[in-house]
Description:
- This protein is mainly β.
- Helices cover 8% and strands 50% of the residues.
- It is built from one helix and 24 strands.
Amino acid sequence: MLRLLMGIISVVFLCIIGLMMAMMQILAPHLPYQGHEIAFLALIDRNWHIVRFDLSRNAYYVIEPQQSIAPSTLDWSPDGTQLAVTSGYSGRRILLVNLADGTVTQLPGWGEGRDYMPKWSPDGEKIAFFSGIGSDPRETQSPVLLIVLDVNNYDTRLLSAGVMSLDWSPDGASLLYQTEMNNWAIYHLASEQQTAIQVDVSAGDLAWSPDGEHVAFWQAGRTTSIGVVSLTTGDIVTLARHATYNYFNPDWSPDGRRLLVVAADTQRGVTEIHVIDDQGHIRQRVTQFDHMAYPRWRP
């Protein structure tokens, strides 16, 4: 009789735990933010969707905007209420998705270009993005332009041409970008002057650290790894390298102590999201979906 009673209690307990886990996923958009929420793109039913994920609870919520947007990149607003999203896989337009109600606002682009890869300034006043001249995604001879849009009045400003990757300085006064010739430069918005940076490495996906002293990036090799360069000394440290993973899309946590990275498993043909610390140790894996991209910490 005692064994039967203990068995019933165990079953009830497991059912309660299962119900709690299900409720966590349902209530994920309403969970309080405590410095551990991220957003990323996930391939679900052959379409890319925006997913919010609470790392501490292992709970996720699929964002359902009020219209179909076919997201291909994303970036958080500094206040955490919106996402700037590239709509269209070849880059077509930039949209703002309100996370409270799913409403979508289209931002004005640059002429007839293909606009993509939005990056929000730390003060929330501007969005930098790339624009490819022309409307045909097969065109490869036109230079890629670096544009800054004022979110308040929609004024646009052309900063440079022939660029590949960008990020804002933590104070929002400058933009770091990479040219098509693999040179790096810092554009100072107030003076409209540029400072060249010499980094002898094949790299991409630049991410400026919150303390302003380092830049994370992917670097080529037998497998693609994550490197971090000191802007003061030029020294490079490799934080993430693995024989069967290619690493991309680094993004610093708000405290600068961790990095989000995409880890593409070359053997299993899936992509994971890894959280690595400043020593390169993997602290957490997100594996809920087979294919994920562009993970970003909530500011």
